[in-house]
Amino acid sequence: MKILFASSEAVPLIKTGGLGDVSGSLPPALHSLGHDVRLILPAYSDAVARISDLEPLGTLEVAGAPSRIRLLGGLLADSTVPVYLVEAPGLFDRPGNPYVDLDGRDWWDNPLRFAVFDRAVVEVALGHSALGWRPDVVHTNDWQTGLVSPLLADYAERPATLFTIHNMAYQGSFDRAIFDALGLPAHWWSVQGLEFYGKFSFLKGGIAKSDIVSTVSPTYAREIRQPHLGYGLQGVLNHRADRLYGILNGIDYHLWDPASDPTIPQHFSAEEFHLKRRNKTRLQQAFGLEERADGMLFGHIGRLVEQKGIDLILAVLPELMAEPDTQLAILGAGDKRLEAAAREASARYPGRVACRIAYDEALSHLVEAGSVCFLMPSRFEPCGLNQLFSLRYGTVPVVHRTGGLADTVIDAGPAQVADHTATGFVFDETTPAGLWGAIGRAIEYWRRPGVWWEQLAVNGMRQDYSWAASARRYEELYEVARGLAAAD
Ligand code: ADP
To answer: Distance, CA 331 to ligand 1 centroid (Å)?
Structure first.
């Protein structure tokens, strides 16, 4: 199959979260299955700098673009997957984050930036580029690519479309004036189209007009059909329920392998689990925590936003610190108020709680390798990757029963402990008491004499969350989408 994979971020070119991980690993996994998959991204300065031998591949006719649009081509690092970058002078050649300026505010012209990108994707999808290539399927992701399927829907001869929702909380909703300024088709302004409570939504466009809609875990696919996680789009999602699927993300098993990870001081594996300990010492040193070989070191990594429940972690600190052997290492950046709260907590418990307010890829590997337990009390979590990294690194996850966390972590209840299927601790109530209940169980388990803890951690290490199985599921969905497109 010829697949065009459109995304607003992809590892190792540019990343702000899980979407970047998926876009950097799913295309190579599909390529390994024998498909002709090509990735298309905006030509952010960082992405341009990270592809060697980038070549101009001609210009594209893009309606409403304020400047000439060029397509640049190269290869995704360490793979033979072609990458196309959409170059639009003035729109993407900016420093830092793809979505926000240096003060953390959305770029003022985001609707224009991503409308131009989407129209460029459509030109490539219809074979109107100098590539001499036309995909069978276009796979788009999140609101930034939400206009692609609606734009393609107006063409009789079009590729099949699949739209993946990585997070319903980000919708790309804008005012009528912007809709008009972008010159979008007037008939889109309707309840069946992109209109959404007096505004218009890129995300709704992807959901309403794609042949298939998917999201990144089976549980999240059910949750977003309910009001509390549907953000007003539950009606559209229920209307399209027969086209809505949930496929778990995988993780890159080469990048995240405790037996060969070049960023961690001591390699280890399920067979040699005892070696993991040395990473704890290094993590304690890196974070300025007391060096305690027997410390029950908890780790947390994530965007510091309310979704991730960092406030719940900080709220249970009095109880957690009342235990004699506990420590906590936090790595994250985001909301200034939550960053300040994390800093205050580490000042209050010197040597036992430490935070690094940063986005640091290498340090995130050390936190995963060196922690005993990983805290992920997300209020909602479409899939979540850190619990998967944690399982792979024998770092037992404590998670809220939601989305992909519910689908990937098996609670250590009595039956699951007895039959050796347990991999972590799961709680239901997103309150400090709910989280503390699960942490308390983890602490009790850790202190049990014998190999209980090791068994739990090793169970997690033996799970398979590599991309191979998920890539096969996408392959099947592409076929379903092609059938639907042909019948359209
Ligand atoms: P989301 O996409 O909502 O941010 P995910 O768990 O799906 O959450 O993916 C987050 C990704 O970003 C993971 O790879 C995680 O390790 C990484 N990440 C988040 N914050 C940081 C940070 N401060 N430093 C390094 N990596 C981070």
So the answer is: 10
Q: Given 3-state DSSP classes, what are the helix, strand and coil percentages for the chain, each rounded to the nearest 5?
A: 40, 20, 40
Q: Is 300 helix (H, G, I), strand (E, B) or coil?
A: strand
Identity of the residue numbered 411: D
Residue type, 340: A
Average pLDDT of span 271-294:
97
Mutation test residue for ligand 1: of 26, 100, 141, 303, the one with most atoms within 8 Å of CB:
303
Ligand 1 closest atom vs CA 16: 12
At 77, the pLDDT band (50, 70, 90 cuts) reads: confident
Q: Six-digit token pair at 344?
A: 């205050």
For residues 230 and 220, what is the distance between their CA atoms, to the nearest angstrom?
10
**Do residues 125 and 135 make contact, with C-beta atoms less than 8 angstroms apart?**
yes
> What average pLDDT does this structure show over 182-206?
97
pLDDT at residue 418 above 90?
no
Dist CA 293 CA 121 (whole Å): 53
List residues near ligand 1 (CB under 6 A). Answer: 17-18, 21, 301-303, 331-333, 358-361, 364, 383-386
Residue 297's pLDDT is 98
